[in-house]
Amino acid sequence: MSQHDEQHGAERIGPHEETVVIRRPELKESRGLMTALKDNWRSVSDAVSQRSDQFKSWLSGFRRVEEMAPNTAKKIHDETTQILQPTADVVRARKEVVFPSTEEVKTLEETKRKEQAMKDIAEAAGIIELQESDGISVETFTDSAGYRFKKNPTERENQDYVATTEHGSVIVDGMGGLANGREAAMVIGEEFMTGLKTIKTPDEKKFKAAMQVSGNSAQERMKAFAGKEITGGAMLATKVLETLPNGSKKVGVAWSGDVWAGVITPDGKADKKRETIDHSALNDIYEIRAETNSTKREALIERFAETIANNDNSPNMSFEQKKNASLSLIKNWVSKSEDEVGKLAPKLRMMMTHSINNQEKDLKIDTKVWTLAPGESLITLTDGYTDVLKLPQDIERAIKIAQQNNRPVMQVLTELYLEALNKGGVKEDNIGGTFMTVEIPELSANELEEEQDEWAEKTNPDFRIPTEGAFYDEHTQYGIKLPNTK
């Protein structure tokens, strides 16, 4: 120990015998403190050393776990897989299923509903009512199983009325809505069928008068539906008024609304000169635009505006207010170009200006009398068909298919209707109609022989029908007349 150390006092403590210098005067007092500090230092050092040994042991254990981990993990995987494999398969299968969204579910349900509806109608179309009497045959079809496109089964009802009897045919497109459309169609149908029964002569004026009376009676009965949404129907009635000597038929046609009728020639073509013009805003606009006389034109516009006002059940508006609003609307339509009117056509055609309902004041029933020659047909259709099919193309197409396959025209037409619905973008509705054909009279045996003689004389005077016992073969039945072999 140096002199300095002796003077101040010195002690070495700690694991490395660090030197702590304490001044001599304080050495005595602090010796006890130094001894305690030295002991504590050694205790802390031993503790740290012990912890270090433990840490090394832990590290060694970690290394062993790390070395064993792959084998241990595989063992655990094998054991859990064996236990949980069935559950895992179920979970995996569930994950693979793609559950549709709410919108997809709605679309799927709607598709299935329409498919079933179309299947039902196709089956119903297979049952066409066929009637033959007095030189005519009539195919009658209505979707009698009901309005199949409604989601709620209790709302599925047929709102079209179709009936054919020996007195004539009536078709009605009910428009009353779900609450009373069916009843409205039946009321109108019954009244017009009664009117057809009263017609006993071929007088065209009496036919028109009888149809007007039937319309008035139907409107009186329709008052029972007053207060409900506009209730009524578009109607078309037909009756054979007279049979001419050559077998032709004079047929009376009466209609109100947008139910359609047209004549089909023997070659399966629609005759544009013999078809009904429905009572819609579109045809009224065309009529006004075609009128060149300004006075008559103004009268047509005035009458059209009154018709719309009469059928308008808007609350809190007087008749004059409705009429003035209609006048403004009509003048706007009339002033449009052909292209603009064409774009508005679907909307305007949906706006009926006349029908048989519980609110109309000015009942309009148009009548025509057409002469149908043998082989010609008259087809009548509700707007369920005409709003979906293309006229006359689809009618002519249906007739061609029906003739080639010996099938009912109304059945084929219904199939074309379903085909159009499948393509989408068209309205779903009740369907109903009739197809009446004037039969070609059969020649009697005497008439046939006279016709054959006339034919032979004109073609070859040396040829004549073989007499009894003369040579005869199968060719004679095809009109080839063999010479007398005697």
Automatic annotation (TrEMBL):
Which InterPro entries does the record match to this protein? PPM-type-like_dom_sf
- What superkingdom does the record give? Bacteria
The family database entries (SUPFAM superfamilies) matched by this protein are listed as:
PP2C-like (SSF81606)
Protein name according to UniProt = PPM-type phosphatase domain-containing protein
Organism (species): Candidatus Abawacabacteria bacterium RBG_16_42_10
